[in-house]
Write a structure and sequence with these properties.
Blueprint lengths: L1 H24 L6 H10 L6 E5 L3 H11 L3 E2 L9 E7 L2 E6 L13 E5 L3 H10 L16 E2 L5 E6 L5 E5 L3
Parallel strand pairs: 1-4, 5-8
Antiparallel strand pairs: 2-3, 3-4, 6-7, 7-8
Length: 168
């Protein structure tokens, strides 16, 4: 119960601080159009994201052997870290980092697209990876998004959620 109260206090404090900061900087913040113009003028795009994992070898096996993603062999990285290609200059940085707490949520996720969702899910199932709704409520669940894309979710060895969809 103490942990719940402490977490609620932390969340409440974060909300209060966020609202205060938003109000404080609202006049200085660029509009949506201005933000888009800034991102466009500097050609800002997502290039990579990082996942801290508890067991590098298990994660390497999962992401390269089971998911079939390519290890970019970034030998300049510290031991037990790697970059994985997600295609189109998008990368996933995976690694063990001592002292960093691994705490996946039931909602945060990233997505991987395939041109053959059914076949890819059969491949994943053959390796013991079960797809479900986000958060794991319904097993073998596939849903249609409003844009017509089919999606489902899997988890990596640390419990991070990965959306698998047929958007490409």
């Amino acid at each position: 119960m103490k942990d719940i109260k402490l977490n609620l206090r932390i969340i409440y404090s974060a909300i209060i601080i966020s609202v205060f900061c938003f109000q404080l900087h609202a006049q200085d913040s660029p509009s949506g159009e201005e933000s888009a113009a800034i991102a466009s003028s500097y050609n800002l795009t997502l290039q990579h994201t990082t996942l801290v994992v508890s067991n590098f070898e298990a994660s390497r096996e999962f992401y390269t052997k089971i998911l079939g993603l390519k290890d970019l062999n970034a030998d300049w990285l510290p031991e037990n870290q790697m970059f994985i290609s997600l295609g189109n200059n998008l990368e996933l940085h995976v690694g063990e980092v001592p002292g960093v707490e691994i705490k996946p949520s039931t909602f945060n996720h990233f997505a991987i697209s395939t041109n053959d969702l059914d076949a890819y899910l059969k491949h994943l199932n053959s390796h013991g990876v079960i797809h479900s709704s986000l958060g794991g409520g319904e097993k073998k669940y596939i849903q249609k998004r409003p844009d017509g894309v089919s999606q489902t979710f899997i988890q990596d060895p640390d419990g991070y959620w990965i959306e698998i969809n047929d958007a490409n």
